Each structure stands twice: as C-alpha cells, then as structure tokens.
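TA notes, week 10

Several of you asked for a full example with nothing omitted. So below is the full record: structure tokens for the whole chain, then the designed sequence directly under it. When grading your own attempts, check the secondary structure regions first.
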C-alpha cells in the first residue's frame, strides 16, 4: 500500500501486494524455482491510476536478472517510461517460515522508453 513519487518524472507508483511467491526457498533443493508476482499501480500526472501485475524470477538475494523470460512480464510501459522489477526481498528461507505481507520490499527501475 505504499506509494512513491519518482524523482524527475510525473509518475507515482503504488505497491499493493505480492500476489504469489513461487520461488524455491534457500534451504530447500528444488528442481525449478518459480516467479514472484507483484501488484502495482501507476499514476501519471493527474491521470487515473493504472493497475498492473508484474512477475520475475530472482536469485537468492532477491535480485531480478535484466532479461525477459517467455511468459513472464517483468516490465511495463507507461507513457514514455519503462518500469521494471529490479528486486523482491526477502527471499523465502524454508518451507516453514511464512513471509508476512508487510515484510516484502520491491525495487523498481524506471527509465525513459
């Protein structure tokens, strides 16, 4: 539910929630790790906010690679800007520890299109 005004732009981004976190916990050996999905909204200037969902894979430090995976949308365009997930933390530790919604932090990269 936290919002941030992006310096040097007319964008305000609101982080709503982590919709799902299918990443393999650090203390577990998995055949494959899934993505983490976040819900955001972006308001440009005085316009209406636009809701969107982004997904990404991360390493065990929560960093998202700067690549696009087939079927996974880790970036979106809003006007002349591209908004991309840079990281989602914390990374799951084990199967018994649930990450509370208030613990999640995301870092976004905003660049000119």
């Amino acid at each position: 539910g936290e919002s941030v005004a992006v310096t040097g732009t007319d964008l305000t981004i609101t982080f709503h929630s982590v919709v799902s976190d299918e990443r393999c916990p650090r203390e577990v050996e998995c055949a494959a790790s899934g993505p983490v999905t976040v819900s955001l909204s972006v308001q440009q200037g005085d316009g209406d906010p636009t809701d969107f969902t982004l997904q990404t894979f991360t390493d065990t430090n929560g960093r998202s690679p700067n690549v696009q995976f087939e079927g996974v949308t880790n970036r979106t365009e809003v006007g002349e800007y591209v908004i991309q997930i840079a990281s989602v933390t914390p990374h799951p530790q084990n199967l018994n520890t649930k990450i509370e919604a208030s613990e999640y932090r995301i870092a976004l990269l905003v660049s000119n299109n």
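The mean pLDDT is 93. Use that as a sanity check on your answer.
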